[in-house]
């Protein structure tokens, strides 16, 4: 399970959605080094351990909304790179019966999200961090997971397919951006 990220830990409304030519270059570096590179590196070192068993699953967390362009270009490119990496890994790993997927949760109630003031209506659209965990568990126990290899999957869609719920018993749907750029 690759779930590492950086680049918006210093998030501020003033600069995050600026045009790419006005974005600070450190944001790109953090997203690609602590995000994309970390996913690649963890997978690179995990594969030899999986190969001896001739089975396995690599899950790369991502953000995705049906191919829409995200509001911040460096963020969009980094997440697209993770999605494409899962696809490329799946192609190379299929003959070893190892699946690689990209998995997109919705708006999760992380410590960072909960540290900010949100209205009850906003929070009603969030997911617990356990919800994505349940998606990973469902994938890991699916004997046909290789059929999903190379795909970008959403937690909400997997919840409906596999029949799991969030910790409150709800089944939040796949996240959809309210104002995608395209």
Explain what you see.
With about 180 residues, this protein is mainly alpha-helical. The chain has a single domain (about 25-160), classed as Rossmann fold (3-Layer(aba) Sandwich). The chain has six helices and three strands, in the order αβαβαααβα. A three-stranded parallel beta sheet has the order 1-2-3, sandwiched between helices. β1 (about 55-60), α2 (about 75-95) and β2 form a beta-alpha-beta unit. α1 (about 25-50) packs parallel to α2 (about 75-95) and α5 crosses α6. The longest helix has 27 residues, at about 25-50. It starts with about 25 loop residues before the first helix and ends in a 20-residue tail after the last helix.
Class by SSE composition:
mainly alpha
Distance between the first and last residues' Cα: 30 Å
What fold name stands as the CATH topology? Rossmann fold
**CATH architecture classification:** 3-Layer(aba) Sandwich
Q: Report the C-alpha radius of gyration, rounded.
A: 17 Å
- Order of the strands making up the biggest sheet: 1-2-3
Calculate the mean pLDDT score and round it.
87
Low-confidence spans: pLDDT under 50, at least 5 residues? Answer: none
Profile the largest sheet: 3 strands, parallel
Counting structural domains, the number is: 1
Shape annotation: globular
The overall strand count is 3
Q: What is the share of helical residues?
A: 40-55%
By CATH reckoning, the class would read Alpha Beta
The CATH superfamily is identified as NAD(P)-binding Rossmann-like Domain
- Strand proportion: 5-15%
Q: What count of helical segments does DSSP give?
A: 6
